[in-house]
Queue: 4 jobs
Job 1
Amino acid sequence: FAVRAHDFRHEAGGVGHAIYGSLVQALIAAVISIPLGVAAGIMLVEYPDSRLARPTTFMVDVLAGVPSVVAAIFIFGVWISVLKFNLSAFAVALALVLLMLPLIVRSTEEMLKLVPDSLREASYALGVSKWRTIFNVLLPTSISGELTGIVLGLAMFAILFLGATLGVAATVDGLALDDLVRRETMREDRK
């Protein structure tokens, strides 16, 4: 089942390769989108007056409304057609990054807003720098909500990409099975 096709006459096939590829894509997307999303969420809450805050908010809002098909076509158009990179798990992971980032950024942003100002002020009163306050006070306090956004982003991967992959695989497998049956009946008719 995992590494062989349902038809034992074939030497390769099965679902093992698809599972491995899906895990690689999810891992690549998580490695890229989690640090970027958490960093963007921190910037939007702790540095709201920076020059990057407004464009970042705008881009997160835009990405939140992008359908998965549009993200995939965009990555195909830029990464593969224009930049001439090969089709790869990395290209699919980039499309997934576009879909995961808004969830991670928004969950990080909202969880950091829920941290009481008294914790920030207490840290600053002790002479702790802003970055140490962020990493030692704010992030540990809001980690549960941030993990929720990360898990939701990975769940979106499971729903969108794996569901679409299974649908395509079932269609292709069904077509291959029909073709195999057609060839076998033609072979029997010739005899």
Job 2
Amino acid sequence: PPPPPLFSSRRRHTRWNCSSRGLGDVYKRQGQRRDVFIEHYYAKYINPRLPPSWMTFEALQFGLVSKTFYYLDTEDKREIAGLFGIKHPVFKSWAHSCSALRNLCAHHGRVWNRVFGIKPTRPGNLKHLVPDNSRFYAHAVVIKVLLDKVAPDSDWARRLKYLLDEHPEAAKNGMGFPDEWETTRVWVESL
């Protein structure tokens, strides 16, 4: 069968399916995780086999969401990234680095004084604010910028500042935070 229209080619669809176990992983995950909305879908519908994409993506692992974005058609990537006010190669980098950071945190890895191998791309308007994208601060800026779009009322930035203030022994410069980071335009309105 032809690839779904959102994938740029049959080859990319096949790669997505193989590299991430694609739909097989979706079926497996939805079998393991029965959220109320998924239960409702399967109780009411037989076809299509998978629930609508908004339900399916709610149940996917973050890494698979990142891989799915990577394999999408360029126009769809542009449209999604445009919702965040960035170009699609930057968004792809951000999704990948957020996925790596999430995995590191989920496995109790250290973010303090760590040099990250998977680094978020710095778009032109953030390069002067994030001088070193190999440290946690670059990831924090990415999270903040994304949250400003999807959850503008989030208190994540205040909670991050509180956590850093509560643990002065974890030197902020070891995580790439510049002096007076709280006063930069990325953070000032949230803190």
Job 3
Amino acid sequence: TLNNKVLTITEVCRFNNGMIRVLDSYYWDILMLYNEIVKGMAAAGSHGMVPESMGIDTWGVDYGLLDKNGNLLGNPYAYRDHRTDKAIDEFSALVPLSRIYQLTGIQFMQFNTLFQLFAARRDRLPAMDIASDLLFIPDLLNYMLTGIKISAGLAVIGAIVGEFIAGGGLGSLIDAARTQQRVDLVFSGVI
């Protein structure tokens, strides 16, 4: 609470968050995270606290895929999953690393979203063929809590779409990382 310019923080709930291993892959247990957030909100209510807003902060590279009806297409992979271990080298055969850096300025780490998407396409994950939405973990949890799909990156998507249509730019990296191009769905996300 904020009272007379003094912020008081009271911990009412705490839960563990870790990756789960299934066979040889690592995932986020997104349903457990959702359930724990709901429990935390209930705990705040039982202490007489009524949240006016909520923020969710997570590692920024992982995402969940939704089908056209808004159904989650499985637990999201965790950034430490080994499917991306060779993705930088493989992707750089399609797009030179110098070009990727010129467009993004990001540090090359195998778990960056670009390389995760590339690995998903390379491995022919069926969810990639039926997904209509990609939400980063904070946005996915917000969607699960509210039913509203929104992404903090929509401003960037608009720039990417423009660059893709004009040729080159960040959109060309996205196009190189996957084989299915659904520009209509990108525009519906921007609107």
Job 4
Amino acid sequence: PDGFHTLMTVYQTLALHDLVTVEVRDARATSISLASSDSRVPRDASNTVWRMVEAVLAEVGRTVEVHIHIEKRLPVRGGLGAGSANAAAALLALEQELGVNLTEPRRLRLAVEIGSDVPLFLVGGTVLGSGRGEEVRPLPDTSSMPCVLALPEIGVSTALAFRDWDALHSLSSLTPLSSSTTIEKLSRSIA
């Protein structure tokens, strides 16, 4: 397996976000620099924002110098999709800076190349996610409601969480059929 999981989920974006600034200058050779208010944010090609900028520049065939700044307001590895949201924000900001307007299908294709949940942040609101999470369909927005976020002092990598889940699942006696039956029984008992 490739470490990805097929899922069906309902996403909900929140009114919380980092602040991503993208500045572009004409140049003879492409260069990218990334700074952040949080020292834990990667400042190289391992960062989703960096990878998005590279992908957009390749897509539009431009050679420029790009300076990115990420003002962190969300926790690093907090499970809120901040890195993916920042990649989507960088795509839109870079389009504006370059004076280009990619079509929605081109934007979504680039988003999927960067990360499974990046397309969510191009749609926003209440969204049905399927496949690896990259297939997104808008749903009617939920009504506004208070939300409490509890954040531990440690961060968790999504890839590591899925890898640990797979290791735990391989040791259990659950099969897809028994998992479905168990979920149905739990749903009935809660209802």
